[in-house]
């Protein structure tokens, strides 16, 4: 645990050193069509605190969770390194440090937006948990600030054949000083997804697919030319009663982030 905290503190200190020296910018973990920077290469950092680490309606930690990240962008390609570490666990969840790597390509064609993505999940402090990877593609059509989107994904490593997909509506409005994003989606995962991520060796007769409603968004406010602050939220409602023995029907998290781009 001491080693985990030291690694996370070091990662966070790097973020804040960059913040202090350079200033801020904008990266997000929810649907986002931020106006592209004119710079060919850019690096952004973000330090976030959340009360609950939720992923597709599944709670991994609750209490005080630190989630710093670093993102590098080059000619439409983006590489993100993201860490999650529970500082104070209040719901008796197992404390597992997670370190994820995301590589994506942003493609705009008129009102259409495409984002093929490869995401690798690793758990550096838990040898018993195998790293895995997902391939996905985000596809959206925008008319002004309003859009519709779909985002199918498939595990291609430890749980090959497990799939999760979302489709829904997005509102994305950006001004010189602020950026507002709101997403409403319907998501579903197949049985391989739920067996691997939720029920494990105890499916308890579950035969239906995992289904949920996902509402998330953020408001980003520029503090100066480089720094920004960003409160955000995520809400999940699990549809049906099949998974009530494993998950709470409703899950809500709040996050406060400060970031910089240079």
Quick structural summary:
The chain is mainly beta. The chain contains two helices and 14 strands; from the N terminus they run H-E-E-E-E-E-E-E-E-E-E-E-H-E-E-E.
Overall shape: it is globular
Please give the largest β-sheet.
14 strands, antiparallel
Q: Whole-number average pLDDT?
A: 88
Runs in which pLDDT lies below 50 for 5 or more consecutive residues are 16-31, 33-38
Q: State the share of residues found in helices, binned by percent.
A: 10-25%
Gap from first CA to last CA: 33 Å
- State Rg: 18 Å
Helix segment tally: 2
What's the CATH first level?
Mainly Beta
Q: Using DSSP, what is the number of strands?
A: 14
CATH homologous superfamily title: monomeric porin ompg
**Total domain modules:** 1
CATH topology: the name is Porin
CATH-level-2 architecture: Beta Barrel
One letter per element, helices H and strands E, the order comes to HEEEEEEEEEEEHEEE
Description:
This protein has 262 residues and is mainly β. The chain has a single domain, classed as Beta Barrel (Porin), CATH 2.40.160. It is built from 2 helices and 14 strands, in the order H-E-E-E-E-E-E-E-E-E-E-E-H-E-E-E. The chain has helices at residues 2-22, 191-199, and strands at residues 41-55, 58-66, 69-74, 77-89, 98-105, 107-109, 112-122, 132-143, 146-155, 163-174, 178-189, 210-222, 227-238, 250-261. Strands 1, 2, 3, 4, 5, 6, 7, 8, 9, 10, 11, 12, 13 and 14 form a 14-stranded antiparallel sheet that branches. Strand 1 and strand 2 form a beta hairpin. It starts with a helix and ends with a strand.
